[in-house]
Each structure stands twice: as C-alpha cells, then as structure tokens.
Amino acid sequence: MFKRHKLWSTVAAAIALTLAVPTAMAETEAPISAEQKQPADTKVAADRYLKEHAKQYQLKADLSDLKYVTTIQTDAGHYVRYQQIVNNAPVFNRQVTVTLDRSFHNPLVISGYEPYTTVQQVSQLLPPGDLKAKALQFVGDQAQGEWAPSSEEYGYTIQKGVATPTYRVVVHSKAPYGAWETYIHAGSGELLRKRNLNQRVNGTGKVFLPNPVESQGSVGNLKDNNDQDSPELTKQLKSVTLQGLDGSGYLRGQYVYINSAAKTYSAANQFNYTRSNDSFEDVMAYYHIDTLQRYLQQLGFKNVNNRAIKVNVNASPDDNSYYQPSTGELTFGTGGVDDAEDAGVIAHEYGHAIQDNQVPGFGDSHEGGSMGEGFGDFLGATYEDATSSTSFGKACVAEWDATSYSSSNPPCLRRLDVNKVYPRDLQNEVHADGEIWSQGLYDMAQAFGRDVATKIIIQAHFSLTPTATFKDGAKAIKQADLQLYGGQHAGDIDRIWKARGIPTS
Ligand SMILES: [Zn+2]
C-alpha cells in the first residue's frame, strides 16, 4: 500500500474570488454585431458575454484564469473554447465553451469551470522519473510492465476547493490490461483519481454451454478423437456474447486476460471457432470466467476476485489444470479432452482463485484443501446446472472432460451426491475428501436455490483462515446465513451438515 508523505506546505496564498457585478443581463443587452464573423471577433464577443455573466458561472470577473484554446467556425454557428488554468498550468479537463449562432445571438455557455479558494504550494515536486512506476502501482501489477509508452503532464486538480498541484500520468498496464489515466499529487505522490480510458466492447463467440455431453443430454457418439471436429460436437456449439472486451481484438477484458491469445485475434471481435482449433479453448475460458465473475457481482460481491485474471490456455500437455497462488494465474492443460473445453473444469479452477482472493493462502491444512476442492466442484456443478439446456449430469461435474477417463454414465470428474460422511470416509486426499464438503454445499443449493446458497457460501469464506477445518467452514456458513438472512436457513443448514457428519456449532 502506498505510504502517504506530506511534503507540501498546506499554508497557501488565499485567492479571493472577486466577483463582478454584472452590468447587463442577457435580456437587456444589445445584440452583438452580425456584420463580421472572423474568429477574432467571435472571441471578443464570447469574452464579452462571459465577463458580463461571470457571476452567474462563478468565473473571475476578468477571466484571468481562462486560457483561450480555439474558435471553431461552422455554417450553423461559432464555438469558442477556454481552458481553466492556475499559474499558467491547466486545471485538467476543466473547460468552458461559448456557443454563438451565426448572428451572435442566443449565446450558450457550457461551463466545467471549478471555483477554488486557495492554491496549494508544494515545496518539492516529485521527480518525473518516479511517476510511471507510481501510476503502474496504483492501477495494478507493476512488475508486468507496459504495452505502450506512458505520458505525463503537470497541472492542477481542484480538491475540496483547493487548487492542488497534480501530475496526470497515462499508463498502459499489462495487468490489468488497459490504458489508465491517473492523477497523482505532485508533492505527496498520493493517488487522487484514476480512470480506465479503454472503451469496453462486446464481441461474439461460440462455446460449449456448459459442455457437449450435458447440453446434448447424453454421451452418445461424442468422442475426443484427438481434438478433431465431428458433426455431433459442432452441433453443440452455442453463440454467446463476449462482454467487457477492451477492443484490442484480443480476448482481454475487464475480468479475464487470455494470455495465449496472440493467435486468437479478431479486429471485429468475432471469435467463432470449432473445437479442433486451439483458439476455441481461449473463447471458452474467456466466456465462462467472465460470466462467473459477473454472477458474483450480480449477487452483490463487488470485491471477490474482481480483477482481470490472467489465463494460460492449452499451456500444459498434462490432463491437469491449476490455479497458481504465487502468480494469481490459471493454467489449463490439453491431456485427454482439452480441459478448457469443459466449463465444469474452468469453473472449478476459478473457484480456487476466488478462495485465494478471499483468504490469501487458503487451504494450508488437509480439511482446508478439501474445502477448496469441494467448493470448486460446487461452483462447477451449479454453473453447469444453471447454464445447461438439459437436466443431464446433475450432481456431476465435468461430464465431457471425464469421457477421457471415466466409463460411468454420466462420466464425472467427481460427484456431489455420494453420501460420504466425516470422519468415517476420509481418504486423506483433498479431491476425494472434498466430496464430503461439496455435497453439503450442493445440498444447500438444492434446498435454497443456487443464488441464495452461493451467496451464503461466498459470504462465509470471508470468515475463514488458511488452516480452517470443515467445522470452521460449517460454522462460518451458519453465521453468514444469520448475517444475510437473519438465520432463516439455520434449520436446513444444521440438517444438511449433520448428514455429512459436520457440526455447525
Ligand atoms: Zn482443484
């Protein structure tokens, strides 16, 4: 966290706003001569009108802190633009325009002028060489660097009526990906304001929703066949909207940054591939993670893993995928069915990122690790249920991925209804023991609905520690229900966890 230094003197010269008494009001003044329409005349007319109405727009009577910028002449009228200044430096983005019609009648003033009472003095300005690093620190991951050069400008912002020396620094950060405008106090280095300049755009793409087995409602003829296309698999593609893209043509956006997307590019943001194309998995990862983050926000969680998570798709030849806490990145493997062809796997891994974000270091105990796996399976199974057009594969996660290694029907990476009981069925393996935990969570979703259950469960994570136990987790769930719903679901929560052998108090 940035440490605040106070280098500037807070005693500053007071600037009295001497306000002019208008000599004439708009209704009574004589029209400005329409004979001449030169820019100079236009500016004289605009100056005169502003001076006469200075009080109304809270301007200085002599307009001494407005710097003339341009006059634009069109057939339909004239536009004079001014920039607010302090000590001959701009007050960023604070401008005034005067619109005059062709005969200089009916002036219109649009004023962004911001009055102030004092000008703050700074005894020592920040060295310009420090600005880029500071700005990158304020917007995200400094270590990732920039994708385009930064720029900086000295001026002022008005902070609570005080004209404050400020640097405007524009940086192009890689993580989160974007172009950011930051306003940094020129003395203290404090961040005053930041704004993402990137315009968000929506694109389109084709995905499995959530995977081809579940959307078809059976395994049927669906086979990996070494990542080849088949008519049956192509038939399961659904067109979706890809939200929040940054407009670069890559799969980079508000909540997801596809790291392997250099090959996945569309200037028109159209990402329509079949599953044999490696770019298909990039689209899958972008769409499903973005959708999950938006779902969390819709539930009211604005601060849970709310960042553009970097995702490395098809980046490992293993039939394995993982979340890496040390880098905050997700990686999906290509062994068997490509892992990112199944939204159940994608959601499971994103579950680890969510928990690590809520409880840094989560899962530093066997039961904590098992809760992590169980939560991922819960997130995957409920996401599959919510997005599937069939009811196939209830209480089962990653039916398509599992065709590579399971001959059950449906094939499941894991199930959420095998009735394991704590501590009797412990196998001392986090994925297996996670089935104890995932079933409790999944039963909550069956009893209260996905939204209520997810809300309680996410809320409960905030209470946990890296070494939390099943019992800690169940107690936190009961507490979260108390805080969110006044304990409305307490009886069902007790019953559900008792069936898993886990007390809630
Ligand atoms: Zn996992």
UniProtKB/TrEMBL annotation:
It holds the Pfam family FTP. Residues 65-102 form the FTP domain. Residues 1-26 form the signal peptide. It comes from the Bacteria. Residues 210-231 are annotated as: Disordered. Transmembrane segments: none annotated. Keywords: Hydrolase, Metal-binding, Metalloprotease, Protease, Signal, Zinc. One of its GO terms (biological process) is proteolysis. Gene3D superfamilies: 3.10.170.10, Neutral Protease Domain 2. One of its GO terms (molecular function) is zinc ion binding. PANTHER family: BACILLOLYSIN. This is Peptidase M36.
